[in-house]
Amino acid sequence: MFNHVGRFVHPDVSQGCQLSCIKMMRLTKPTLFTNLPVTCEDRDLPGDLFGQLMRDDPSTIKGAETLMLGEMLTLPQNFGNIFLGETFSSYISVHNDSSQVVKDILVKADLQTSSQRLNLSASNSAVAELKPESCIDDVIHHEVKEIGTHILVCAVSYTTQCGEKLYFRKFFKFQVLKPLDVKTKFYNAETDEVFLEAQIQNITTSPMFMEKVSLEPSMMYNVTELNIVTSGDQGESTFGKMSYLQPMDTRQYLYCLKPKPEYAEKAGVIKGVTVIGKLDIVWKTNLGERGRLQTSQLQRMAPGYGDIRMSVEMIPETVNLEEPFDITCKIINCSERTMDLQLEMCNTRTVHWCGISGRQLGKLTPGASLLLPLTVFSSVQGLQSISGLRLTDTFLKRTYEYDDIAQVCVVCPFLNNEC
Amino acid sequence: YQKLQTDFEHSRLNQAVTKVHLNIIYDILLQQDSIDLGAGEFVTPQEDSSATLSESLMDRLNDQMMESVMISDSPNNSEEDDVGPIDSFLDGGLEENGSSGNKKEESEIGQNTTEIKVPVDQKEQECTKDDIKEEIDIEEQIQIVVSPQSEAHSPVVIKSEDPEHQSPKGTSPKDEPVPVCTIFSQGTQPKSLAPDGFQPTLIKSPSFTTGSGGGSDEAVTPSKMTAPLVCQPSPSLSKFFTDNGQANPASDFFDSFTAPSSFISISNPNADVSPASTPAPLSFTPEHQPPTPVSVFGPTVTEPTTKPQSPISQTVPSLNLASSTPQAQPFNQLQAVFSGTDDPFATALSLSEVDRRHDAWLPCEETRKMLISVATQQYGPAYVDTNRLTMPGLKFDNLQGDAVKDLMVRFLGEQAAMKRQVLTASSVEQSFVGLKQLVSSKNWRAAVDLTGRLLTAHGQGYGKAGQPTSHTTDSLQLWFVRLALLTKLNLFQNAELEFEPFGNLDQPDLYYEYYPSVYPGRRGSMVPFSMRLLHAELPQYLAKPQEALDRLHNLKTVCLAILENLEKGSAEDGSMITLTQENRQASLKLWRSRLSRVMYSMANCLLLMKDYILAVETYHSIIQYEPQQRVQLLSGIGRIFLQVGDVKMAEVYFQDVEKSCQMKARDPTHTTCVLMNRAFVYLSQNSYAEAHASFLEVLKIDPRHPVTNNNAAVCLLYLGRLKESLGQLEGLVQQDPALYLHESVLFNLTTMYELESSRSTQKKQALLEAVACREGDSFNTQCLKLV
């Protein structure tokens, strides 16, 4: 049974004159031979026989015969699967089976994909002559960039001794499969930070060592990888010591993206779909067989802020009960028109605003922002939500409500002393 | 969140273009004519390729939480992605249509390409011509190859894509259509994701496929079993018995081993291969155990063995000849007869330290209670529930043939096949000596046959499973050898089938205490530890690694408990026997080594399961038990990392190896090891030239190192030097067949033959002849890739 060695004896084009044949074999990495240790003790019936058999076996590890994984390399046993991003390597051998010398042999290897045709031959010059029983050898490499059907077309042309020009070719077809499934999800923080969770699933049939999974941010963002726990000066991967993915396993990578300062200014204006960046993934399998892929540009929908965005710039974490504290809000006009704003502050059951409600904030042009210092106190202990701000655009008589804009922890300052 | 979904799929336009291309190829193939490669049919329009690269952006609302992200292509190609238009909306239906249409085209192509073949008669001529030529070559090879019978290869399995059972009535090669490239057939089933062949998995043997192949049919056919082989003893068997003047061969044969400390040869004049002449010391004979006072009692050793002979010879015939008689009866008789034998010498011997040390085991609670009640004679063993008894029997008979010979008949003709001479079960003495001879000459199939005969003689032959029987040390040893050989032959299903009646090897009748009259005073397990280990390992080869792990953990628990008992100051089984310091140390040593052997099995099993994290951890933990194997173990862990693809971690371990090697005295094997590891790292970095150079350095130290020679040749192939590689391997096989007629080397060689020339079959046949002169019937012929 011929395995992956493509064996094509080409058909006779002109009777009896075919002299050479072409073979190809995909060169995936060799594998290490595995033993099957069966042992017994000296006291058992076979005595030392089994031990002796294992010691004499050249493929065992001497001194540790029961170690299954040996050192003997074996050639690939079948074509195997090939995945997008991996390198397709193949041995191409043209052999002269006849007893005559043939001349001017030209071997050409092309790879036909669904969209293009690539020449993979190392050299395109003809070999002057090929003696009987000799070969022309070539090892071709190609990084696979498309999924689906690929056809390797090997063509040989040569001239026989009687001057006849002959030509034949062979086709080797294979499918390129998808190795990974990548899913992403964005989390928008209160600030302008964006968190990206990427789920990467190995959909091949063999374990994959993930050598690199990184996010290449677009020009607007800086990225921090959150997949390493740093303790001291040693960073340890959140995935543990061995960074490999079993078939069908999924792994979550987390990244934090911050807009660069120059873009952060305009953040209020960033709307709709924005390009975040792309994931760059490098993996390795058996004996360093390498693959690399990039995702398409990841895009996210910027959260909609409506016409006016209000964000809290400064707020203390912990405050004392019934003691006023300051917060600073930022108001950004995200609309296309100028607004004339009026601020109302409504007390809630727990939060009480200080100062005059209903004051004018003045005109705000599109894209412009305004810092708003406010004073507030809480009458109830515990984690309290700041609510009750109302902005009214006097031009359009439109009111915007801002509730739950931030939380603050309210404590009783006297509790400890009294007790 | 807005859902974006993009995909690998190409635009519709591209699908259409692809179809056109495939059609063109299809046409070309049908016509079988040559078309100038430079012609324009295949040239893809430039704009087309750029369109492919733009991935289609789709609004898909079905995935609420996570977005599927498309992996575009490799980085080099993806620059266009950024600017690619997001205009090609591709809905699911269209995609489906496109791809299925594509598929249809593919299959057509596949069919058509495989039809390229040479007209049969022309091939025939070629064959005959070559046959003549090859025959001359073969003659030469035989001369080189003939050498002493001390083969040194154990069978190892090569995973084969096609474990087709070779039928002996196979057509001659000339009748067969010339096999044409199979690469297409691989490619046409991409959806099934066939295991990708990179994992060194142990699969199956040529003669026993998973239940469906011819081999398995043969193995379980009960029809041939009507007349068990052993009922007609072979000449040597009967001779053996007449020599002894005994009526029944089986009982005599068996009894000679029943007593714990007897010589194999004592009651068997034919078997006088004295321990001195066998290289492996028969260490269960008392003379090899200095602490026991055996030499003093030397003359009396025969007593316990000869005494029971006559009673047994009365009972056993009914076992063999009158199988209709209820089996329980002779069994009871057996017990009754033995109850009188109360030989003080035998007792003394049975209590020997070595026996106790090796046989110690901790039965489960239920079994323990039953053994106590047997010992206190609350009730006789005869009343034990049959569910709690072990009643093994052969499950198949005489499955064993000689695959090498079958191949010779098929490819080289009857005449050539006649030349093949291997030992068979009948051509050796029907005893342990013959068995060992078969095992060491690597005729394991014949050895399995012989164990079958010997077990049949013991009343545990074909069809005897489920019938009451008695166990002896020797019957269990025979079972162990049989099952171990089946495992070595990769006949895992057969081994499992025959293991089944043994349950979990913890039934009361598998302990010496159950037979107080036969083994007075002897305690512990009759089942050898190696058999327990084999039983535990077996499921992992049958795709049940979890079960194997469970069993191995049980073994480990017992080993640890016994070690704890020893450290606490009691005997292995926890009883308060005082042991001398010397004996305690010996016992600790033995049980530690057993523990480490169990750990090895666990690590191997985890490796097969591809649970690399635990496998590495387990291998690492073995170092504390086997410090002398530190270098090998660390290198092995490094290789595991390479196998996973983590080259950096592998290097860390290899550096550890280098440090360990530096600390020790200069040892050439360590230098070899370090160089070998370096070569593997180069290999993993795609630096085949450097890897080759490292292998050559190893060869400077040890020119005959078989693994390195093979690996160097493999590197040459990846460097595009097929002829050199082939020449090197061929030369090695011819010069040193003892080392290089190994499955993996032959597999590499035949693979290269296939790549090199259209006459690979002839060259493989030459290899077959070389194999036929040297290898036993256990040779795995799959590696020759002749069928």
UniProtKB/TrEMBL annotation, chain A:
<dbReference type="InterPro" id="IPR010378">
    <property type="entry name" value="TRAPPC13"/>
</dbReference>
<protein>
    <recommendedName>
        <fullName>Trafficking protein particle complex subunit 13</fullName>
    </recommendedName>
</protein>
<dbReference type="InterPro" id="IPR055427">
    <property type="entry name" value="TRAPPC13_N"/>
</dbReference>
<feature type="domain" description="Trafficking protein particle complex subunit 13 C-terminal">
    <location>
        <begin position="316"/>
        <end position="410"/>
    </location>
</feature>
<comment type="subunit">
    <text>Part of the multisubunit TRAPP (transport protein particle) complex.</text>
</comment>
<dbReference type="Pfam" id="PF23643">
    <property type="entry name" value="TRAPPC13_C"/>
</dbReference>
<dbReference type="InterPro" id="IPR055428">
    <property type="entry name" value="TRAPPC13_C"/>
</dbReference>
<dbReference type="Pfam" id="PF06159">
    <property type="entry name" value="TRAPPC13_N"/>
</dbReference>
<dbReference type="Pfam" id="PF23647">
    <property type="entry name" value="TRAPPC13_M"/>
</dbReference>
<feature type="domain" description="Trafficking protein particle complex subunit 13 N-terminal">
    <location>
        <begin position="21"/>
        <end position="176"/>
    </location>
</feature>
<comment type="similarity">
    <text>Belongs to the TRAPPC13 family.</text>
</comment>
<dbReference type="InterPro" id="IPR055429">
    <property type="entry name" value="TRAPPC13_M"/>
</dbReference>
<feature type="domain" description="Trafficking protein particle complex subunit 13 middle">
    <location>
        <begin position="180"/>
        <end position="303"/>
    </location>
</feature>
<dbReference type="GO" id="GO:1990072">
    <property type="term" value="C:TRAPPIII protein complex"/>
</dbReference>
TrEMBL record, chain B:
<dbReference type="GO" id="GO:0016192">
    <property type="term" value="P:vesicle-mediated transport"/>
</dbReference>
<dbReference type="InterPro" id="IPR011990">
    <property type="entry name" value="TPR-like_helical_dom_sf"/>
</dbReference>
<dbReference type="GO" id="GO:0005794">
    <property type="term" value="C:Golgi apparatus"/>
</dbReference>
<dbReference type="Pfam" id="PF13181">
    <property type="entry name" value="TPR_8"/>
</dbReference>
<feature type="repeat" description="TPR">
    <location>
        <begin position="596"/>
        <end position="629"/>
    </location>
</feature>
<keyword id="KW-0677">Repeat</keyword>
<dbReference type="InterPro" id="IPR019734">
    <property type="entry name" value="TPR_rpt"/>
</dbReference>
<keyword id="KW-0597">Phosphoprotein</keyword>
<dbReference type="GO" id="GO:0005793">
    <property type="term" value="C:endoplasmic reticulum-Golgi intermediate compartment"/>
</dbReference>
<comment type="subunit">
    <text>Component of the multisubunit TRAPP (transport protein particle) complex, which includes at least TRAPPC2, TRAPPC2L, TRAPPC3, TRAPPC3L, TRAPPC4, TRAPPC5, TRAPPC8, TRAPPC9, TRAPPC10, TRAPPC11 and TRAPPC12. Interacts with CENPE.</text>
</comment>
<feature type="region of interest" description="Disordered">
    <location>
        <begin position="72"/>
        <end position="117"/>
    </location>
</feature>
<dbReference type="GO" id="GO:0005634">
    <property type="term" value="C:nucleus"/>
</dbReference>
<feature type="region of interest" description="Disordered">
    <location>
        <begin position="286"/>
        <end position="318"/>
    </location>
</feature>
<keyword id="KW-0539">Nucleus</keyword>
<keyword id="KW-0931">ER-Golgi transport</keyword>
<feature type="repeat" description="TPR">
    <location>
        <begin position="672"/>
        <end position="705"/>
    </location>
</feature>
<dbReference type="GO" id="GO:0030008">
    <property type="term" value="C:TRAPP complex"/>
</dbReference>
<feature type="compositionally biased region" description="Basic and acidic residues">
    <location>
        <begin position="159"/>
        <end position="177"/>
    </location>
</feature>
<protein>
    <recommendedName>
        <fullName>Trafficking protein particle complex subunit 12</fullName>
    </recommendedName>
</protein>
<keyword id="KW-0802">TPR repeat</keyword>
<keyword id="KW-0813">Transport</keyword>
<comment type="function">
    <text>Component of the TRAPP complex, which is involved in endoplasmic reticulum to Golgi apparatus trafficking at a very early stage. Also plays a role in chromosome congression, kinetochore assembly and stability and controls the recruitment of CENPE to the kinetochores.</text>
</comment>
